[in-house]
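Side project, low priority. Logging it here so it doesn't get lost.
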Amino acid sequence: MKKSILLTFAVSALLVLAGCGGASSSSPKASSAAASSSATTSSAAASSSAAASSSAAASSSASSSSAATSSSSAPVVYTGVSITNKTELTAAWHVGDANRQIEITTTPAGNVTKLLADGTLTIVSSDTTKVAVIGAYLNAVAAGSATITVTLAGNTDTVDITALAPDVDYGAVTLADGMKDGVTLGAHTYISQVKLESFKTGSDGGTYGNFNVTDADGNNKTIVYGATTSVSALAYNATTKVWKFTNPKDFLSNDATKALKVGDMLDLVYIRCDYGTTKEICGVIIGVNGVAIANRGTTAAPLTSDDVAALTDQQKLYTYYVSGKITAWSGTATDGGTYGNFMLKSDGATGDAITVYGASAAGTLAYNFAKNATVFTNAQDWKTNALTKDLKIGDTVTMQVIRSDYKTTKEIIGIVVPTQAKVDPVISTMTIADANKLTVDNPGVVKIAGIYAENHDTTYGNGYLMDPTTGDSVLVYGCTWTASALAKTDSGLGYYTGTFTNPTDYATKGVTVGSYVEMEAVVKVFNKTVEVMGVLTKETLATDAAYTYTYAASAAAATNGTVALSKESGLTFGEAVTITATPETGYKVDTVSVDHGYGKEKVAADSTGAYAFKANVKNVVTVTFASTTAVVTSLSLTVDTLSQPASAYTASNVQTISGVSITSANVGNYGDGLQFRTKNSVVSEIYNTTATPTAIKSITVTETTGKLMASGKQFLTISAGTAAISAVVDADVVTADGTTAAHTVSYTAAQAMTFFNVGHHSTNSGALYIASIVVELY
């Protein structure tokens, strides 16, 4: 009995993951979107528990000719395909164990993720009722064997896999019994009825579903540290003999849980997940206030009649959605009778219609703890309820059901629910310029496109997206090719929630810098910085015939000298441009930088004294000239003078200001000045490595208005000396107090201080924002 309960649990998990009731699991386009992680994309395939270590995106070489005249490469001819991890796939595997990934290599080496996505490469199971295919993963559905076949351009490889019966046990207990001392964490699942007493995260349980519960009489208070209605969140590992809870973080987007309130009674399937000495549980909600909920999650389509017939559970623990047409009336009545008896068959189903032995539009499904089962109380309203009284043969209905087999006849009973037309998500188009006008998060998902101009994170895909026409830029804070990273509200409507779960698969198939990409993205505003994050849907390389973009460069007006560029128009991305800076008599080149739209880049002279940079979408060169005779009286340090790139954090940025070499170590620019941060567990500081022209008279550090940090947490160090200061902060001189914006430390000429240091550290993970640092000289 216990094993049959568990089997349904595993089937439910499959259906949640597949996300397509009755759709062929061998369809690569359908299944790849449902997989939580992308397929292996290199010959040394990544394991299912870690992101691939190699990048599938080749770096693009700069081309001196116009991209518009280039041609596409010839199509690849594949001569072989192989499953490379057959030993791992054929090892002992029980129903309820974690999914297994198929690792594939092709000859010649190809991008497996892309081949799966476009249908060139297929993975098929000979028996999806035993072993199902979900993208590049296998799911043990029920005990039995199946042959997995991989096909590419007429080449095939196979592996025979056997799924073993589940090796678990669990049952209904009181909350007190489930919370006894000495329980091995995750060794068992329990079913208890609990009362929601209070939320631990905000006023609604937050994304994860964190709240306090007691039993029905208010005793045995316990922490629920994560809840969902998705059965697939609980998986059993037959090797370690423990359950694991993987929270889909859908508590506020799942229709069954987003409106839960204090006082609700919950039927909960849970495991112990104690933290230290604190007793905690996490798990799946199967009922609310005595009414069962469809605990397959909210991202899967309804089951087909074939799916329901394939279920093996006879204990009526779990409930399901099923959709199909009424093919005939059951029994002697010609209209379903008082109870609602009829035959139901889904479109495309190949098996017999399944018997509905009782349906209602007002009855309830409730969990009965005495029977350890979900029960159905039929209101016998089939002929009188407005939703059911006019139903006829040929009509399509959607129901929430439980299995109620009679001897050898497969039957279901349940509730007829109103159907909603499935619609495609409406995604508006947004320009980069419009995105930058946002002051609050944009709800939903938008289409946005541009040149992927920079990449500073090869794991998650962080960089900048630029409009090739206007030069506008926006920060990309995470991108992926995995469509399922954008969450939808439910299977019926398909509306996006505006939630982005960033997988670490960017390294597997990234983006070539300089290519034109299209994205379906979530737009967020972090502090004052607009960020886009989402799914890449198309990439056009600079070498593609469709890529026709060229770029311009210009030099800002200069004083005390002239600036000329070797080329100012028709530039290809990455093309080298030489800067010729000619100072007037009595002046010298002080600083050279190029603004690419998302931040200035310091340009250093090469060994011959020449300056050059590589073309981006936007290129504005600025050269400053300094007098060779005038006395330098002060140094003013800001984001602009230090060329700190926007929305970036650099470990070391060396600049030359008025002939003085200045290093900004672990300093960022996130729209509020110079950000000294300890979020990366480092000390931030700015100091000079060459002496100032004369002794230092004073150092004034001004905090950014509205960003003052409180005393006791943020510590600002201002110090000076006669020798270069290393990357270790001296003893504290000034403590940020939350009220004083400007801090000044003075020195006498006799002290002859020519090196300064402004540093920051913190007793917590925080940041200090500096508007300017002015070093006054004698």
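Brief comment: The longest helix spans residues 2-18.
Revisit when time allows.
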